[in-house]
């Protein structure tokens, strides 16, 4: 992430070539606006579903605001693997290898119990009608609102998969120490844009990361990107006490937005402007020499919360629209989100 001004003049074209070639050669497996989804899918068959989910999420977020973050991330990790089809919710069984033990998820992804609880309530009201994938998508929207974020309408009508993919969970989900170009290519692969990448990363305005995911950053180039003022030095030494360079404390956590960790706002981008992003992947949006476009977007969202909210809403709908044709033809409405129907 070193910032060499020497490279600057060549970069727009380099970035263009890299991204265009990624786009051409990877393509997208999934249609990103599927005609099967609609706003009124449940209007006559389960009219109360949105109210049930909202009420449950209110309780969950009231009891712990972190629950909002857990559900939003769960939805993201669902949609990046076979589309938004509830595959992430499946437990391992003798005949099915789930995604929960894949490297981006193991010891990290949480919130399954919340979805189980909502599913139970929904099943008692409308048995066999509402997919787990839809519940997760709606719950993620409600989570964002409940911690102060924007509202958007959620298209519904997803089906739950009968399969999961450990391999795709390991391959498709970006990681904290991955470079910007590689991260962007994973979003393009899903039919999302560079703008979607920058806006959706703003979800890190809530929630926590484990020391294992930011140790390299705080013992490496945090000081290079930050202003080294007393505030950032205090923050850094605090992080180092939570997450010692020598090792240990791998599961110690810190908020990615240390200013307002439980509020969905644009302070995540202001932190990136100061060079104090917690994850390497966060800071790269602003500081990478390859991030011409993402840097402009970070500046924009840092100064204009309304444009961030609008773009985040649009990008969340696009994320939720990633659909797997196979789940539509062979999918089902699971009775229990953890298991394929028998
Ligand atoms: C841009 C690429 C992304 C990378 C590299 C990334 C990486 C990570 C990592 C490493 C963590 C901490 C996990 C842990 O330490 O256990 C995390 C947490 C989180 N991520 Fe991302 N993420 C990305 C994009 C997204 C997107 C698109 C969303 C949702 C729209 C999202 C939502 C979250 C949330 C809410 C948390 C906090 C979860 C909690 O509190 O447990 N992330 N992410
Ligand atoms: C998402 O899907 C819905 C329903 O298929 C469609 O109306 C909408 O235009 C899509 N939105 C985006 C941003 O792709
Ligand atoms: C985890 O963080 C706490 C402070 O929150 C610290 O006292 C403890 O030493 C850390 N654990 C390790 C193994 O460093």
UniProtKB/TrEMBL annotation:
This is Peroxidase. Coiled coil: none annotated. It comes from the Eukaryota. Residues 36-341 form the Plant heme peroxidase family profile domain. Belongs to the peroxidase family. Classical plant (class III) peroxidase subfamily. Belongs to the peroxidase family. Ascorbate peroxidase subfamily. It catalyses: 2 a phenolic donor + H2O2 = 2 a phenolic radical donor + 2 H2O. It comes from Hevea brasiliensis (Para rubber tree). Pfam families: peroxidase (PF00141). The active site is at 77 (proton acceptor). Disulfide bonds join 46-126, 79-84, 132-337, 211-243. Its EC number is 1.11.1.7. Heme b binds at residue 204. The keyword RNA-binding does not apply. Binds 1 heme b (iron(II)-protoporphyrin IX) group per subunit. Binds 2 calcium ions per subunit. Ca(2+) 1 binds at residues 78, 81, 83, 85, 87, 99. Substrate binds at residue 174. Removal of H(2)O(2), oxidation of toxic reductants, biosynthesis and degradation of lignin, suberization, auxin catabolism, response to environmental stresses such as wounding, pathogen attack and oxidative stress. These functions might be dependent on each isozyme/isoform in each plant tissue. GO terms for biological process: hydrogen peroxide catabolic process; response to oxidative stress. Its cofactor is heme b; Ca(2+). Keywords: Calcium, Disulfide bond, Glycoprotein, Heme, Hydrogen peroxide, Iron, Metal-binding, Oxidoreductase, Peroxidase, Secreted, Signal. InterPro entries: Haem_peroxidase (IPR002016), Haem_peroxidase_sf (IPR010255), Peroxidase_pln (IPR000823), Peroxidases_AS (IPR019794), Peroxidases_heam-ligand_BS (IPR019793), Secretory_peroxidase (IPR033905). GO terms for cellular component: extracellular region. It is found in: Secreted. Transmembrane segments: none annotated. One of its GO terms (molecular function) is metal ion binding. Residues 1-31 form the signal peptide. The keyword Heme applies.
